[in-house]
Amino acid sequence: MSAGAVLDLEGLNPVQRAAVQHDEGPLLLLAGAGSGKTRVVTHRIARLLLEGSSPDSVLALTFTNRAAREMRERVFGLLGADDLPGLTISTFHSLGARFLRQHATAVGRTRAFTIYDDDDQTAVLREALNDLNAGLSAKGVRAWRRAIDQAKNAGLDAREATPPSEGALLDPAEVGARYELLMERADAFDFGDLILRPAQILTEVPSLAESYRRRWRWVLVDEFQDTNRAQYAWLRTFAPPASNLFVVGDDDQSIYGWRGAEVENILQFPHEYPAARVLRLEQNYRSDGHILQAANGVIAHNERRLGKDLWTERSEGTRIELYEGHDARGEARWVAERIAGLCREEGYAPGDVAVLMRANHLSLDLEETLTRAGLRYAVVRGRSFYDRAEVRDALAYVRLLVNPNDDVAFRRALGVPSRGVGKTSLARLAEFADARGESALAAAAAALDAAVLRGRARSGLADFLAALAAARAEASSPSAQVRGLLERVGLMEHLAHEDVEREAGEGRQANVERLLQAIESYEQETPDASLAGYLEQVKLVSEVDVAQLSGGAVSLMTVHAAKGLEFPVVFVIGLEDGVFPNARALDDRDGAGEEEERRLCYVALTRAERRLILTRARQRRTFGEVRHNAPSRFLRELPRGAVESRYVPEPPPAARAWQRRASGWPREHDPVAVAPAPSDDELCVDVVYDEFGGSDGPGFSPGMRVWHAQLGAGRVRKVNPGMRPSLTIDFDDVGQRKVLASFVAPYQG
DNA sequence: AAAAACTATTTTTTT
DNA sequence: AATAGTTTTT
Description:
Elements: H1 14-21, E1 27-31, H2 37-50, E2 58-62, H3 65-79, E3 88-91, H4 92-102, E4 114-116, H5 118-131, H6 138-153, H7 172-185, E5 188-190, H8 191-204, H9 206-215, E6 218-221, H10 229-238, E7 244-249, H11 264-267, H12 269-272, E8 277-281, H13 289-299, E9 321-327, H14 328-345, E10 353-357, H15 364-373, E11 377-380, H16 384-387, H17 389-402, H18 407-415, H19 423-436, H20 440-449, H21 455-473, H22 478-488, H23 491-502, H24 508-525, H25 531-540, H26 543-546, E12 554-558, H27 559-562, E13 567-572, H28 583-586, H29 592-605, E14 608-622, E15 625-628, H30 633-636, H31 654-662, H32 685-692, E16 705-708, E17 712-720, E18 726-731, E19 735-740, E20 744-746
The protein binds a DNA duplex through residues 63-65, 91-94, 117-118, 137-139, 191, 194-195, 255-256, 258-259, 358-362, 382-383, 389, 418, 420-425, 456-457, 539-542, 544, 558-561, 579-580, 582-585, 588, 596-597, 600, 621-624.
């Protein structure tokens, strides 16, 4: 290491410094949000290297590629280095993929194996289930996919999966075996394999584990609360209790339980690693006082936690703002205006602002209003681009170039553009290939000889094979090879044709062109560029990882995607029961669901530095149906002192009804009378609490007998709370109707 | 076998 | 509301 660099530890607090300077033996660092844990990890790595440890001996594992990249850059910055060959800072999955490329043959794969994502996995499983004569509904197949995924996350084999209720009659051993056979034939690994297989290999070959153990003298794991059992098992093979394992985490920020993350890993760490030293970072350097109070207040409602309270030396700052829109559009309109106002009047820039939400689709209305308001925004979505049908089609061709046994890609590519090879021909081909124990493409030439197919199907397949062979023979750069193949098979032409037909299309051809350009720029940026390398990047690196945040645009993203980030101004939208907390998550895992949703809310709130603004809509369209959601229960948990004492809810859209009438629209649903907007005086903090922290309706509950003056007697099916609560009632005479609760009275008899 | 018509399902979060 | 998947028609 360059002897010149000196690490400055003066800027660190005593606990941070202790963690950086911790010597040998395991250490658990419980680091609250904004407590400077990345600083600690990067300083520690820098310190180790400065004191003479070889970069080879350091392994840092993160959860996302974004975190890995940030960590790497900060270490380089501290050391004034451009590169540190041998230093491994990587995600679990990237490391797993790298490991498996080296040991592929031990598990029946080649070095060129393909990584299958959820959709690919589902396609394989559909095949597997069909082969077992157990054709299931799409839902059933997906349920099995989840079951296998969960098994692998828990460190089990696919054969040990717990059958989902949709396909409970099937034997998991059979399903799992068939699935794994097809995966092996396709030379593919799923995401779970990237963790599970390395763990299995290292467990079976202790000498190999030993060599890694010797190499990685210093192992650091970030976001330890999000590791699953398989990751933990893998970790233990090369970082056993006696090693220098340094884990950092926060049980309050565990938000991946649905993916198999085990908070237990962090809770049990002191027992599993008895020699472990435990340090806590509780001083927050990110958020103003009110924001921190709000976050602490909400998370305090969780019972299963180690318990910690963040504190700050910062001033209390501005109180948290609340807004209630009439519907999602009203909410969006206000948010856009508020962002514009903060930029105009308080010196914030759009790039300082993030809008966080529970689910991706909640951004739709906002995107529209932001555009209209002339505010630049960037939606940080998981992997939207690569999920487009046409991009996946094009990628299928790329995949076949890299791995000819990739059966999922084969089926996909063969079908687009259509070549006269339909369902029946495909089934025949699959049967033929299966009998030979080969992948479809490997058996295709023989199938042509054996005249398995006739007529158009036969010539279509022959053309397809010829195009692939020609592309392979082409000795050009990877991107040129792909371009050539796509031209040869007429995909571009096909898409151009489709674009014309669809008129209002978003340019499918243009999207594939973008893909080709992405491959080209990958080629230019990467030293040993290969299509295989590109594909791995596509699978493992999401848009979230590469998003240029604060590039001057408002960031729109899910709370999950926002983890680890911070912004001067944070909006959290859609704070309604059923949305955030998400209804499905709530009945998950007996009660654990609500606590995880609350942790998610905690993560959202703690992203904010200076301003925190929470919004909800009284009604929202979901699945094409208007729903009146109660305010999020988390709003009720905000400490009053931290919340702005006044808020002005959006008045009901009386104006719109009037306009409709004026323009001659039918007036069937015009409200007869509309409540006036409440005056400011009515909106002191107590009202905020009643309205926001919402009543659950005026004493009605499902099952209750009620009376309506016009419609007669009935039974309450559903209570729809809100500003003007309504009830869905099964009337004895007229069937199900939705009526305002104020017109209904409880009724005996 | 392909296109058109119909239907069921979705929006929970992601490596 | 939009779409992916399924069935029917050509």
